[in-house]
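Chapter summary example.
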Amino acid sequence: MSSDFPQPLDAAVIPRFAGIPTFMRLPAFTNPADVQIGLIGVPWDGGTTNRAGARHGPREVRNMSSFMRKVHHVSRIAPYELVRVGDLGDAPVNPIDLLDALKLIEGFYKEVHAAGTVPLSVGGDHLVTLPIFRAIAKDGPIGMVHFDAHSDTNDRYFGNNPYTHGTPFRRAIEEGLLDPKRTVQIGIRGSIYDPQDMAFAEECGIRVIYMEEFSKIGVEATIAEARRVVGDLPTYISFDVDAIDPSFTPGTGTPEIGGITTLEAQHLIRGLQGLNLIGADVVEVSPPFDPSGNTALVGATLMFELLCILADAIAKR
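The structure predicted for these 317 residues follows.
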């Protein structure tokens, strides 16, 4: 390990409830070039159509990330010994102007991408992934492993509005940022507005693993299918916490019963180790709907799982 690699505060020396809260209790940085993986908050939920609150997700996930330690207990990956990791703060947002917020977020991530830094983000609602893609996928469409209860490939809401947390991946495909044939969606379920709601996703080539299929084939076969779909080209992981059953994650805007368990979620992420990963996010943690903090703890834990496989991927390049 390089002596100048940033390290989390030691909970055996400084209690978890003390100090300035940052992701994983790491040092805060303002220059993305100072780190190889930038942990970033996107405190914005202007794309939410019903239960707002995900704008508060990054702050509470930072708080709950104090529970994370340095080494993964299964893979033994020690991310802070492999690469430089730090908290890059929050992307700038505009809570009252959706289009301006998308531009601000995109601009922030353009700087991160230009520095060669891999982003690991916490939203925010799922629309925040679109400006991230606009920043990191300008050179060509990327693949995605997408965990969610919802496909997020709807077209328009409330008249002719193309931008909500239900539309980001349709827009990303239309803009040439996301390759639908290298996209797999895991955990999709719940009632829909119209019989044709999933037509776009299915017809453009997205591999949709509905929850019913997942429950039949299991974790290992799902991992194998996801790896087959994305291959060895650049791939992003986007994890909406509503992919998980709301008995584990009640603090989210659009809960759907019958989801995956937290343990299954951990196994699924671990199974993606070795992919050509270029970034990841955890979105839709909405603390106001879960005063216990459990949903934010799930978000922080998934963030650590993602951090481990991202660090492993970067260290092996």
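To summarize the output: Residues 59 and 126 are 17 Å apart (CA to CA).
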